[in-house]
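ugh ok so i messed up the first submission bc i forgot one of the chains. this is the corrected input, ALL of the components this time, i swear. 640 residues overall. if the numbers dont match what u have on ur side tell me asap before i send this to the collaborators (the ones from the other lab, u know who)
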Amino acid sequence: MKFLSFFLITFFIIINISIKLLVVDQEAEMKNISKEISEINLKIEKKLTDISYSTRPQILEQINEENFKFVPILQSDIIKLKEN
Amino acid sequence: MFKSDGINYDNVKPKSNLLSSKKINFHDKKDLIKNVKREKSIRFSKKSNLIFFLLCISFSLFISFNILKVTYKKEINPSAVHAKITINRGKILDRNNEIIATSIDTNDLYVDIKKSLDKEKLKNFLSEIFEDKESAFFERIFNKEQYSLVKKDISPTELNKLKSVGDPAIKLHESKKRVYPQHNIFSNLIGLKTNELMSKIEKNMNKELVEGKNLKLTVDLRIQNIVREELYKSLIEYRAKAALAVVMNVKSGEIFSMVSLPDFNPNYPKSILPKTENNLNTEARYEMGSTLKIFNAAMVYESESEIQFNEFDISDGYQITNEKHILDDHIDKKILNFDDVFVKSSNIGSVKILESFGPNKQKLFFKKVGLTENLNITGLKVVSNKLPINWESHSKFISYGYGLSLSPISLITAFSSLVNGGFKIQPSLIKNRINKKEVKVFSSKTSKRINELIHKIVMDGTGKKAQVKGLLIGGKTGTSKKVEKGNYSEEKKITSFIGVFPANSPEFLTFVLFDEPQKNVANSKETTGGNTAAPTFSKIVKKISPIITKDNYSRN
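and heres the new structure output, hopefully the right one now
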């Protein structure tokens, strides 16, 4: 009986410590993943900000003037389309 | 040799522990007493073992529970972990999710002089990299021999140069910086946020932004840019002191664009001047002039007064007070019908219409449209309208737009009710917080007749230059003299145009105002709303209508 008790206690403690370690490990992994995600998110944010900077209307107008010379669609153009 | 009951125990060896036990006494031959005692002892042992076993189980369960409890006590919430790491100030976005304001990671540069390998060399490097800093600044830092801040938010180029220096004294601290990718476009609406300063939406919505919540506005970058661009061109052309414009949905109250010039670049707070800081649409008040006359027409239509069939003689002018005599010099006709009063923008006609109602009805009407109340718009600071202390003595002046100062947003809100079928609206700048409570303040009939009248003003009257090819426009011009040293100035004027499109069933309103324009498109002596604000309105609407009109507005 004493042996059984000793065995059971040891067994329980080992199991619990294992679970605990597993959980701690998973938790750490989750934190790492979260950190990675947030780092990626920050990079995305930075890229989005860069895109916003480089595609702001003044820059687009400048590119248009230099390379394409597109003209804005006006209300009168829409009427012409409908007529056609 | 021991013999018992015919069984030979010759080879049986008694247990040594029993033999060595002091408690065992062999008193009787058959060992009965001993057996009884042993049985008792075994029973006791069994019981105690069972209790011990149960205690052990309980203990191990207790330990298990505690270990696991320690583990699971902290609820693992990945988003909470994530938030802890990356909690940034929320972004401000336009209605199509274009970034207006966001926070980025930057570095602050510190130097720990004591750790420097070669102070002179480091000082020279830093002076070269940061040319804008004076040499005295570096002298002071290096003489102190302390841990000192050199520059906040260093640029990527500066960072690369610093890395090439390779001195242990260089310390970089991570920090956040608020940036505004659209530069000036939304400056007077959004304001700015630095370590020291905070203004406008950045300030008014700070509570939500610091929690990391993104703020989606009703404004549209494309429309805002067009409005700002056209307004800026006109501001230069007319040599005006300031200008403002608003584009709003007259049914929902959503503000698509709000521009106030001059403006500033929020990325460079040091360049902000006091005159560029205010959002004139909400933080300034003006005597609006003739744009207010349209409320007289609404008053007549709503009461179905017979005066709308009268004719008005304006040939002799009108004596309002002993000192004030008004004339309508700009009108050739001397007898006007009701519509002509508004189409030609007659001050005398407006006063005569008011006379038939009296000041009390006028005041009640202004209350009904919300011009006497304070307007609250989430995210914006709105100044209250300046009403006359004695309404009665000012009512005739009010009939043609003097005597009370209104914030442009307040005029736009009231005007929307006139054209949208008679519903009172609440302007909104934050998306998904639109007040959909519908309160009807006018009949649909009144609204329809107002729309017909303002269309006539644009087709035949003072607002001709507001016309847009392919679009029905309705609107009212406004010109008022500014008060200078207690008197109305003949030179300094406020010119404006408030218009809606399409005029047969208005959906969008555009308001344009210039403060002290010196020139006009017609090169005429007289600078009016008709030759300054109306053409600018036309240029704006020509460009924004293909974007804003529902059929073409797929990105909503």
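quick check: The CA atoms of residues 234 and 341 of chain B lie 29 Å apart. that seems consistent at least. Chain B touches chain A through 47 residues (CB under 8 Å).
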